[in-house]
Every structure is written in structure tokens, then in C-alpha cells.
């Protein structure tokens, strides 16, 4: 299972699928910004430190990349809702449209990759992956809670 997960993560992290998506969509976006835009769309508003943790990148790098997304009009940055010292990023309408287009293109890619799968197999995989992701998130929350104690 570990090898399969590494292969999936490796595939999703490779530049080729994202470059192909951006080319198909005539998207004027640097490849490194694409995962950030999607994450901000899914989890926003989100602070840069939390976003950096989620994507596994350095805070300063993510801060520069979010500033670039802001320059492109895809996100806005403002004071945090819970802590005014924290700058949070949230997608704009243009950013949401681009994230939705990325989602559609990725769904098409996955459909192509799973063309030989039955509907039941697809549902089972989705259910099990959601369960695993939930367990992973719970584990992270427990670890953070333990670290604070």
C-alpha cells in the first residue's frame, strides 16, 4: 500500500499533468501556483503559514507565491477573521473559475485513467480514500494537540 500511495503522490506531483492541463486551458499560470490556487479555493480563507504546512513548502516561498496569485487577481489577501495579525488568502471569482476549470480537467484525466473500472470500483476507491484522508487529518490534529500540551 505504501508503494502505491507513493506512486499516486508522485504522479500527482509530477509537472506533466499540470503542464498539460494549463496548456489545454491556455492558462497563464506558473505551474507552482496551481496547487496553491486549488488549496486556497478548497480551504480558504487560509493563512500562509497553514497553507505552507498543507503543501509541504517553506513559508517564505508560499508567501511569495500567494503574492503572485494576488497580483494575477486570483486571490485576495486580508487580515484574518480569527486573528487580525494573520494575513489570509481567499480566491476571487476569477480564481474560483480557474480552480473549477482545473477540477474539471483533472476529473477528465482521472476518468481517462479509470476508463476500465466499474462504477462500483470507483465508488469504493473514493469512499476508502475519503476515509483514509479523514484518518490522516485526525492523526494530525491529535499530534498538534499533543505538541501543545
TrEMBL record:
**One Pfam family hit:** HVO_A0114
InterPro entries according to UniProt: ArsR-like_HTH, HTH_MarR-typ, MarR/SlyA-like, WH-like_DNA-bd_sf, WH_DNA-bd_sf
What is the top-level taxon of the source organism?
A: Bacteria
Q: Output the Gene3D superfamilies linked to this UniProt entry.
A: Winged helix-like DNA-binding domain superfamily/Winged helix DNA-binding domain
Q: Which SMART domains match?
A: HTH_MARR
Q: Which GO terms describe its molecular function?
A: DNA-binding transcription factor activity
Mention one GO biological process in which this protein takes part, according to its record. response to stress
List, for all copies, the residue spans of the domain called HTH marR-type.
2-134
Name of the molecule in the record: MarR family transcriptional regulator
- Native organism is Duganella callida
- What lineage is this protein's organism placed in? Bacteria, Pseudomonadati, Pseudomonadota, Betaproteobacteria, Burkholderiales
